Amino acid sequence: MYEFIEGILYSVTPQYIVINVNGIGYKIITANPFRWQDYLSQTVQCQVELVTREDSMTLYGFYDANEKQLFHKLNKVSGIGPKSALSILALDDHDGLIQAIESGDSQYLTKFPGVGKKTAQQMVLDLRGQLDFASEVAKSDTTQNTSASDEINEKVIEALEGLGYSQREIKRVEKAIKAEQFNSTQDGLSYAFKLLIKN
Predict the structure, then answer these.
(1) Per 3-state DSSP, what percentage of the chain is helix, strand, and coil (rounded to 5)?
(2) Residues in domain Helix-hairpin-helix DNA-binding motif class (predicted)?
(3) Rounded distance, CA 84 to CA 63, Å?
(4) Which pLDDT does position 142 carry in this prediction?
(5) 95 and 121: one domain?
(6) Cα 11 vs. chain centroid, distance in angstroms?
(7) Residue 144: is it exposed, middle or buried by C-beta count within 10 angstroms (0-12/13-18/19+)?
(8) What is the number of structural domains in the chain?
(9) Fewest CB atoms within 10 A around its CB: which of 9, 22, 171, 178?
């Protein structure tokens, strides 16, 4: 129904962004809302997908067409819904994702929230040889400068919760996150994802 939405970026939260189009605010759930932080109050274009359920209509947003295509591929795997697909997309290392699928490394894939051993194996079966385009998914290069490092760290924790990581998983990396000073929430999330994948 919708291909993209273009308008003024009104707000950014740990779970979604809001784009103002002629006075109407569209709530769009994205893999990593803080990727958009530098574009607040500016005109942006967001690739979108409307997912309808019996009791809801949800707009999912993507940084570009390749990310949207990757979402479609992941969402077709049995055991992976839109939320799990977004959690996987939130990790910046798409090359690592492709390598894990191509090599059959299901242990790596189970590091994502909501992905168990069976689902990881299904990802390998369904997606091997189909994700070459995904290495081109745009990676954020935001470098927002701020002295409020504590506030950034708190936003990182909130974003992880929004992406579906459990309190146990977050507690495992929280101390390391709070020990760092990041220039932006995006930088903090990238660091947190690396810790979560390693542990």
Answers:
(1) 50, 20, 30
(2) 72-91, 107-126
(3) 17
(4) 39
(5) yes
(6) 17
(7) middle
(8) 3
(9) 22
> Range of 20's domain?
4-62
16 within some domain = yes
Distance from C-alpha of 165 to C-alpha of 45, rounded to nearest angstrom: 28
Question: pLDDT (tens digit, 0 to 9) for every residue of the chain, 199 residues total?
Answer: 789 999 999 999 988 999 999 999 999 999 889 889 889 999 999 999 998 888 889 999 998 888 898 898 998 898 898 888 888 888 655 777 888 888 898 888 888 777 888 999 999 999 988 876 655 543 444 333 334 567 788 888 888 887 778 888 888 888 888 888 787 777 888 888 878 776 5
Six-digit token string for 85: 């697909």
Q: Is residue 143 part of a domain?
A: no
- Contact of 92 with 197, CB cutoff 8 Å: no
User: Is residue 57 exposed (0-12), middle (13-18) or buried (19+ Cβ within 10 Å)?
Assistant: exposed
Q: Is the dihedral of CA 150, 152, 156, 157 positive or negative?
A: positive
